[in-house]
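Sat 14:20. Reprocessing the chain from the morning session after the first attempt stalled halfway. Input below, unchanged.
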Amino acid sequence: MKNTITFSINDDICPVGFALKIIEGKWKLPIIWVLCQNGTLRYNELKRSIIGITNMMLTSSLKELEENGLVHRAQYNEIPPRVEYSLTESGKQLLPVLDEFAKWGKMLMQLNLK
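Finished this time. Tokens:
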């Protein structure tokens, strides 16, 4: 009998499952993509760049991305207060994967237009 490879999103032994847990959800990849394309952004700039995201979802997604080391949050003690978000080195390592994903999506879009 053939040994079957199993996958579980809750299994910290599987590297794919572990990685997917970190970026799971509707908004995390769009946040990473917008930061990749625009560099450092303030909260409202980020919100305006992601159509349809709510304040609650942006705040919670940014917090989770920061906790997982993909996004850096810089708070400046000035009047008015300023907070900026950018990708960490670990977050930037995801960019080649997203670039390939974008190429694949473009190919699928072209196929669907025919």
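The chain has a mean pLDDT of 90.
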